[in-house]
Amino acid sequence: MGSIEVIQGDITKLNVDAIVNAANESLLGGGGVDGAIHDAAGEELLDECRKIGGCPTGEARITKGYLLPVKFIIHTVGPIWNGGYKDEIDLLRSAYQNSLKLASSHGVETIAFPNISTGVYGFPKKSAVEIAVNAVRGYISKNALPKKVIFVCFDEENYEIYREKIIQK
Length: 169
Ligand code: ADP
What we know:
Leucine Aminopeptidase, subunit E, domain 1; binds adenosine-5'-diphosphate; six-stranded mixed beta sheet; alpha/beta; globular; 20% strand
């Protein structure tokens, strides 16, 4: 079975096969981690995203990594938190599962996720971590790839929440 790791840092600096972008439905870039990934990957990423033509919430799309040291960027759209009344839990779980499926089908061994939906999309952090870790554990227990999943936390608070969840198992 694959392994899970939690680190604190900037996802654009990682040397892994694939990083996941917390994108929006347009796939044309935005703030937060999305902006950081587009800035670091360069204009050609935006060109490829434009050709894809968007991505519904809960789904995922794959592009090349361009100026980043990764083979692939997997763009997934997490839900905007709406009090829990708009299927947000299932949609967040789907965002993780669909990203992992794309990773497997492209031979990705190591993949890094940001804390999808917990920035401007306002998803409560503890529930988001619960969903993320359970979705990843469920997936890697049944699939040979990816072999390693890294949760990348930008801020200390997320880092502590993830560490607690991973350590308690
Ligand atoms: P969303 O719209 O899905 O909420 P955000 O980009 O606003 O996306 O936030 C998602 C998470 O990504 C937040 O926890 C934020 O702190 C984190 N984040 C922002 N920049 C980076 C980065 N360079 N590397 C890793 N995580 C980041």
